[in-house]
């Protein structure tokens, strides 16, 4: 189980500084939750992740079910022992893959539309590669093409064997192109699954219910009120977030108006650097995102002067550190020209060093926001 306390509420916004306590330690909130999809944050070992100031990780239920399988993880003592990470761990439910392996793949869209789309997903429309039913979802394994079924019962059983501190109820992450009726039907399915998840859970793990409703105000409020009526330990805010980032903040505000102060709120799958101050000011406590590690593996570095594409040849002549204001060991001990060389030579060490810096940079960025909340500056 978990304990959560709000230590300081902002008088200038809805931001709050809090403390989340789990069996594996304390998490100061607001906090970034880096994504360790397959019980690994690519290129970094567990000690290195800790040194980036990371407090908590989230792993992927469906991927771990496929490789290596939850039974292997359970026999290894659960995720904490298996991956040698003695801090807090979350596992998602597999609900995001209902979107990303389904309509997300079909239409090439994410949770927030990057441009206006004329295509509409109507009620009754089905994705090409998965089959969504009232009881759960049929997937095809991306590894061997084998059919897999995942529903609320299966998701909870897998997550209990994985042994994370916090698990999520199974849901359908609705696509941003869905019309009102599709989103409504999806919402009712998610609510039905939420009740099953609570009934099935036998462990002492904390469980967060997931709020859906897409871009529709009445559906978001309906979902928040319904999930809040059930005995969840916290809330995940999921699904799509409209046509732009402004709409996303509006959706978050609608949702949080229906939720109690005393339980933690987790925003699923959002965390670009420019998003972070806005979602925190809206009242979010936790948020997971692949941006720091994903961008690092493509040679993109975040600095106090903005993003840098370090693979460009101009940086072979740059003897400056990545960021003169950053005190991570990468910035203290390596220069841009060497890091650029590693990327262009396709040396994996370059990816490791950039991933470390980006995570450290993001965590420090959030750490500074926490301090501003505590000091009444945000």
Compose a concise summary of this entry.
This protein is an alpha/beta fold. Helix content is 38%, strand content 18%.
Structural class: alpha/beta
Enumerate how many helices there are, as a single number.
Answer: 15
Percentage of residues in helical conformation? 25-40%
CATH topology of the largest domain: TIM Barrel
Q: How much is the average pLDDT? A: 95
Shape: globular
CATH H level of the largest domain: which superfamily? Queuine tRNA-ribosyltransferase-like
What does this structure look like?
The chain has about 375 residues and is α/β, with parallel strands linked by helices. The chain has two domains: about 5-290, Queuine tRNA-ribosyltransferase-like (TIM Barrel); about 300-378, no CATH class. Helix content is about 40%, strand content about 20%. Helix 8 (about 180-200) links the parallel strand 10 (about 165-170) and strand 11. The mean pLDDT is about 95.
